[in-house]
Every structure is written in structure tokens, then in C-alpha cells.
User: Which sequence fits this backbone?
């Protein structure tokens, strides 16, 4: 006797229905290490994760590449930062007079941003089977520019203390 099963019969999703975590729970999951302040040089190379977190390619003053992650409830607060990066990119594209830009050229377009957050390392296996790693800086608050007079964006960490 042949049993006909639907195509998705073996796919299950036993997770509970999605709920937004409380700010306390979200921050405990994101910020497990010491909070530090850095000046990052952010590029207009922006992407999103499956969790709708914002990932921006950044560089240290010494040229070390890393990812800046604005996660959870803070991602919606990043509109002014994204607008600033988009404006800088647009000015650079106009300067290029319509010729296609390479990634390396976009990496050269940088905006200094003072960030508070914590470091973590993302490890994955690449296409050739080698382990790769990238440093990530998970941001809690940020200030566009390096002067102390500009507005602070983001949200302070919620503590249970």
C-alpha cells in the first residue's frame, strides 16, 4: 500500500510563536562582554540579517575590517545613520559621474561614528570548508561624528540591578 504524504510532511517547526523579547532579555543576550566606546569608520555597505538586524561594514583607525551590528529594538532607531551613509554614498556616486563603483571604492567612503557597545566574534565555514571569522561590534548607542556635541542615538542598556 502506497502512502501519499504532502511535500512538507517531514518539515516541522516546533518553535513557539514569535514574541518580542523584553528589553532586559534582549540586552542580556546581546551584550555579554564589557561595554566599550570606539570610533568606527563606517562605510555605506549595509545589509540586514534574517532577524532584521542592521549590519554595516566598518573599519578601525588602523584599517582593521569588522561588522557593526545594530540589533533588535535599536535597528529601527538607525534611520538617521542610514540616511547619513546614503547621502555620503550618493555624493560619491555623483563624483564618479555614473561609472560603476567597485567594492574597494565603496570601502574607501567612510563616516566616523562614535559607538558604545561590545565586541563578539562570528565564526562560519566558508564554501571551501575552511573556518572563517569576523569581528563584530554590537552597538548600544552611537553618535555620528567624533565631536561630543552631536546627538546620541540608540538606547542605553537595560540592567536588572
Assistant:
Amino acid at each position: 500500500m502506497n502512502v501519499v504524504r504532502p511535500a512538507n510532511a517531514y518539515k516541522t517547526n516546533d518553535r513557539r510563536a514569535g514574541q518580542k523579547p523584553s528589553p532586559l532579555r534582549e540586552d542580556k543576550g546581546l551584550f555579554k562582554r564589557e561595554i566599550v566606546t570606539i570610533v568606527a569608520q563606517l562605510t555605506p555597505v549595509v545589509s540586514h540579517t534574517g532577524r532584521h538586524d542592521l549590519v554595516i561594514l566598518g573599519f578601525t583607525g588602523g584599517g582593521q575590517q569588522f561588522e557593526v551590528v545594530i540589533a533588535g529594538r535599536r535597528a529601527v532607531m538607525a534611520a538617521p545613520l542610514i540616511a547619513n551613509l546614503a547621502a555620503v554614498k550618493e555624493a560619491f556616486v555623483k563624483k564618479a559621474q555614473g561609472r560603476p563603483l567597485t567594492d574597494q571604492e565603496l570601502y574607501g567612503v567612510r563616516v566616523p561614528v562614535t559607538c558604545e557597545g561590545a565586541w563578539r566574534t562570528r565564526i562560519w565555514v566558508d564554501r571551501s570548508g575552511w573556518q572563517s571569522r569576523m569581528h563584530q561590534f554590537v552597538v548600544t548607542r552611537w553618535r555620528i561624528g567624533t565631536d561630543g556635541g552631536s546627538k546620541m542615538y540608540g538606547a542605553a542598556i537595560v540592567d536588572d540591578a
Observations:
- The CA atoms of residues 41 and 112 lie 5 Å apart.
